[in-house]
User: Which sequence fits this backbone?
């Protein structure tokens, strides 16, 4: 499939990546969108950075 | 990491109180690193920038300003409304000035969120438009391919600029939110 750049706003569309139609209460629909995926990715990156940065005596040798 | 810590710490020390303000350092630091990483992840090609969506920036900025308002009411109770009265104003101008200050207080979260979102959004749109333009030039023929290298250089330059904007907008957001916290912590 070729990527056609129709409009410069195409890059900001929020797509459903994974969605569950859950009829628990009323008509509930839970979905993982791309903004949610990227927020999860950034959170994981931040956690990894902080764990590595405040890691005083586990990885570093001669301590 | 160390320099990010030093930068945010000096912002907190300078903007909020040097002693009482350290209470807010973890929140401000988390905010800074969150916005910065979100901006930088958006700069990766074929990626997606969460901070270009107003739903995210507005939710962060409204949370901060409403939280600062609640903090101000908790500390000063009803004297918090003296925030709307500039010091040393004549009594005749008071209703007008209070109205103006109130409107400017209401527009704080909107301007805070709009600044971050609009900067990231416009930067990404500019890069996309330039890239489509360059692609359309370069696919015409062999001469146009070499001609298209000039706008390609512009794209590279603007990408560098966007990375700078990612840092600057995160810093501006943090500076303004800490100054709003200071406003409600100590009235004027």
Assistant:
């Amino acid at each position: 499939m070729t990527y056609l750049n129709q409009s410069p706003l195409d890059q900001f569309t929020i797509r459903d990546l994974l969605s569950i139609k859950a009829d628990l209460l009323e008509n509930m629909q839970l979905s993982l969108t791309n903004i949610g995926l990227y927020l999860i990715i950034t959170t994981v990156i931040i956690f990894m950075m902080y764990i590595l940065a405040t890691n005083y005596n586990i990885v570093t040798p001669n301590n | 990491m160390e320099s990010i810590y030093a930068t945010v710490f000096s912002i907190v020390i300078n903007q909020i109180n040097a002693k009482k303000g350290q209470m807010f350092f973890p929140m401000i630091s988390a905010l800074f690193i969150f916005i910065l990483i979100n901006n930088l992840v958006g700069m990766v090609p074929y990626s997606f920038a969460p901070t270009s969506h107003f739903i995210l920036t507005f939710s962060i900025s409204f949370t901060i300003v409403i939280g600062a308002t609640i903090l101000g009411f908790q500390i000063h109770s009803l004297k918090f409304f003296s925030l709307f009265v500039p010091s040393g104003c004549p009594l005749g101008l008071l209703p007008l000035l209070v109205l103006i200050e109130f409107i400017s207080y209401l527009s704080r979260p909107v301007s805070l969120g709009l600044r971050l979102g609009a900067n990231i959004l416009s930067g990404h749109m500019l890069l996309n438009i330039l890239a489509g333009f360059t692609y359309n030039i370069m696919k015409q023929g062999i001469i146009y391919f070499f001609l298209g290298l000039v706008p390609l250089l512009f794209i590279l330059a603007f990408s560098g600029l966007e990375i700078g904007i990612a840092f600057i907008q995160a810093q501006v957001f943090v500076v303004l939110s800490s100054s709003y916290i200071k406003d409600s912590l100590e009235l004027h």
